[in-house]
Amino acid sequence: MDRLSIILTLMTGAVITGGLVILFFTFGWYGWLPIAIGAVVGIVLSWPAGYVISRRIKRTDPQWDESRVERVESTVPKPDAPEV
Known about the structure:
63% helix, transmembrane helix, membrane, 2 helices, single chain, mainly alpha
């Protein structure tokens, strides 16, 4: 996993959760249950969404070498290693 997707996970989780809660409130569904459902869905979908957005950003960047991703030995990056 790359570091950009970790940062994007936090942002996409907030956007997904907030969007769902606003959608529920728009349809007149108020209470703690719609907020809890929005939070759970936001937590579950934030990691895949962050990863997809990260890959798309790096794929469209002309200076980024996408072939380096296959040469990574683990999914957790080392703190002192370069960006994958």
